Structure formats: C-alpha cells, structure tokens
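DM from R.C. (forwarded with permission)

"hey, sorry to bug you on a friday — could you get me a structure for this? deadline for the figure draft is monday and I only need the backbone to look sensible"
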Amino acid sequence: MRSDPHRSPRTERFPRRGTDRAEDAVAWVLTAAALVLIVVAGVTGIAVHGQEAERVLLESASRTQVRAVLLEDAPVVSGEYRDRGTPVRAEAGWTNRDGTQRAGEVIVRRSASAGETVDVWEDRSGAIVPAPTRSANVVVAGVLAALGVLLAGGTILAATWHAIRILIAAGNSRRWEREWARVGPVWSRDLL
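My reply, with the result:
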C-alpha cells in the first residue's frame, strides 16, 4: 500500500540534549530506589514489630507483679509544670512468688507514707525490674522504625535529586553560554 502523497511526512521528536537523557535516567533510578525504600521500610517496621512483640511475651512470662510495703516515707516532689511529679526510690519489703521475704529499693511514682503498699514487678530471680513493655508500644516501635527508614532514605534520595538537578542546570548553563557566544554576534549583526 502506498502512502498518501498529500500527507505530510511524519514529524520527528525534538532532538534531546544529553543532559535531558541523563536527568531522565537519574529520575527513573531514583524512582525505583524510592519504591525499594518503601519496601525496605515496611519490612523493617514488621521486623521491629515482631522483635518487640517477642520481647513483650518474654517479659510478661518472666515478670510478676507483687505488692510491696514501704518501709519509709516516699515524698514525690511535683513542680509547677509537672502534674505527676518525679518518681523516687524508697526502701520496701515484699513477699516474692516462692514465699521468701525480700527487701530493697523500689521506685515510687506517687507520694506515699511508710506502711502503704505499692505495686512492683520482679523477675524470676526476685529482683525488682520495670513493668513489662505494653502491647501498644510494639505498634509504636514498628511504625517509628518504618518512618525512620523512610525519612532517612527519603532525605538521601531528595538530596541526590537536588544535587543532580544543580549539576545538570550548571552544565546546561555553560552549554547555553557557549552557544550564545557563537550565535549571539551573528543575530545581533542581523538585527542592525
């Protein structure tokens, strides 16, 4: 089949500069890197969530809450800007899981007098330890880990893109100056 002689020939795309092709290539590479970054952030968040969930199970299984009787007053000092006050240490006595009487320093979060009871946590050896990590902290840790990876990786990708754009703009600017130095005098002479 012959082409229509009255039809205009197919127009070619505008010629592209090498810097345009380089910028496109970098944009594609950084876009792919951003997609990989999203996957890595998700995997990191899931991994941290799993580790923290395992930690919660381990702590919950190995720690027991006991009631301790304060052996001395525990005045918690609160200030103008702190509603709850600063926790203090005070001597207390308690009976652990196996019925053994124990004594030691415990952390008191509210003002209490000698003889009052406070809740404390002990491990299998009977030592006072912090309360087990809460389940809500597991989710927060996973989300924060994922956001941290996204923020760090995103900053690197954005800085890379910005630096590439500056380098390409500088190269284009030098090229335009060279071309104008060659063409400008001819155009200026023709206008006069």
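R.C.: lifesaver. The mean pLDDT is 84.
me: no worries. DSSP finds two helices and five strands in the chain.
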